[in-house]
Amino acid sequence: MIHIVKIGETLSSIAMNYRTSIGKLIQANSIHNPDVLYPGQKIIIPGLPSPHSIPYSIWISLSKRTLILYQNMIKRKVYPISIGKILDQTPTGDFIIVNREPNPGGPFGAMWLSLSKIHYGIHGTNDPSSIGKAVSAGCVRMYNEDVLELASFVPNGTAVYIRP
User: Fold this and answer.
1) pLDDT at 127
2) Which of 57, 69, 100, 116 is the most buried if burial means most Cβ atoms within 10 Å?
3) Could you list the active site residues?
């Protein structure tokens, strides 16, 4: 997988977002000075496939509070979701699923799918009555059965597009 460096990013922030180490990034990219990155620079993220090689993509509409699963650009399923509350809004942008954890415990329900933005993910919930509302700390909540179904389809590396 290739990451394009954005303004303000550091090798440390990129490593955190993709849940990898600075050392692995340095090794995969033959970086001589880890303190020097420039916007537009291509960084190889080891261990993650290119989102373009995966037939699935996820599109999230914050205003409609829906998550749409596409397979080969064909809409396969629409799921209801919860989003971040006003003070903890769900970030918009283009992300990928970097890892997953079944049964993470607490309010995260039956599955956690980490996004390539530290502290954010798509997860289940222990409060199904919250679905459809703006109540999370910025994550995307789904019914447990829905997030388990979604996780059974999409591998790590799947593109996630979050739009207003």
Assistant:
1) 94
2) 116
3) 123, 139
